[in-house]
Amino acid sequence: MILNYRGVSYEYNPPVIKTSEKKVGGKYRGLDWRFRNLKQNVVLQPPANLTYRGVAYSNRPTAIQEKAPANVREQARWLMLNKKKATNNRGASMLRRSSQKVGLV
Predict the structure, then answer these.
(1) Which of 3, 38, 78, 85 stands 20 to 30 A from 70 (CA)?
(2) CA–CA separation, 82 vs 89, rounded Å?
(3) CB-neighbour burial class of residue 7 (10 A; exposed 0-12, middle 13-18, buried 19+)
(4) Which one is predicted more confidently, 91 or 30?
(5) CA distance linking residue 50 with residue 53, whole number of Å
């Protein structure tokens, strides 16, 4: 299949996935439907480390799980620290904007 994107032509051949139809199905809003099972496993793209405008990323990112605080005291400590950090950031932002209006920067 020949496709066009922004004036550039290229050929795209979508992968063919073999499936087997089951007899279990039904009708939904007047149309027939059936469950299908894959005959072969789908081949995924190999992971690649890519760069876009100097920023590295991967086509298959991994999920990073943060450790949850162990107890209520630890949670309260983190909430207080985050609130204090947000307050400081807000104050610094207001000072920056006001100094730009006055012409100091």
Answers:
(1) 85
(2) 10
(3) exposed
(4) 91
(5) 10
Q: Identify which of 58, 55, 18, 56 has the alpha carbon closest to the alpha carbon of residue 37.
A: 18
Q: Tell me which DSSP letter residue 103 carries.
A: T
CA nearest neighbour of 18 among 40, 43, 35: 40
Using H for helix, E for strand and C for coil, what is the string for 3-62?
A: EEECCEEEECCCCCCCEEEEEEEEEECCEEEEEEEECCCCCCCCCCEEEECCEEEECCCC
pLDDT tens digits for range 14-25 = 877 787 777 767
